[in-house]
Write a structure and sequence with these properties.
Structural class: mainly beta
Largest sheet: 4 strands, antiparallel
Oligomer: single chain
Number of helices: 1
Order of helices and strands: EEEEEEEEH
Number of strands: 8
Strand content: over 45%
Low-confidence stretches: none
Length: 133
C-alpha cells in the first residue's frame, strides 16, 4: 500500500504553533518514506514525523527536515502493529510571505503471516495466535 499526504503550511507559521496533519495508515510495516520539499521553500519550511509524543523521523529529536527542491527518500522497517495506526506530520514555515505545501509518502506492507492469520480467522473461524482480528 502506498499513502500520500499534503502538508499545507501558511506563511509565518512558527515552530511554537505548528500545523499538524494526521496521516491515517493501517496495520503493517512502513518500509518506504518520502518527504518532498518543493522549490521555493528556501530552507524555511520544517517537518517532523511523530507517533503520539514520540518523534519517529528524523530519528534525532532536536532536528527536522528542511531544504529547497529536495526529495528525501529512505527505507525503514517501522512497525505499526498497535492502533492507532496514525502518524502526525508536524510542520512550520518561517517564510513571512509565502505558504508552502510539503508532500509526505509512505509505503506500507502487511506481513504475510498476518494475512494468513486473518484469513484463517475470518474465513475458517480459526483464532490467530496473537488474537488479532
Amino acid at each position: 500500500m502506498f499513502y500520500a499526504f499534503s502538508v499545507p503550511i501558511p506563511a509565518n507559521t512558527p515552530s511554537t504553533a505548528p500545523v499538524d496533519v494526521e496521516a491515517v495508515l493501517t496495520y503493517g510495516v512502513i518500509d518506504h518514506v518520502e518527504v518532498h520539499i518543493p522549490a521555493g521553500c528556501a530552507g524555511l519550511t520544517h517537518l517532523k514525523i511523530l507517533q503520539g509524543l514520540h518523534q519517529v523521523w528524523p530519528t534525532n529529536e532536536d532536528e527536522n527536515f528542511t531544504g529547497d527542491s529536495i526529495n528525501l527518500v529512505w527505507g525503514d522497517a517501522y512497525e505499526l502493529f498497535e492502533p492507532p495506526y496514525t502518524l502526525t506530520l508536524r510542520a512550520w514555515n518561517l517564510d513571512e510571505i509565502y505558504p508552502h505545501t510539503l508532500i509526505v509518502r509512505f509505503g506500507l506492507y502487511v506481513p504475510r503471516k498476518t494475512i494468513t492469520e486473518r484469513f484463517m480467522e475470518r474465513i475458517l473461524g480459526v483464532p490467530s495466535e496473537g488474537g488479532r482480528a
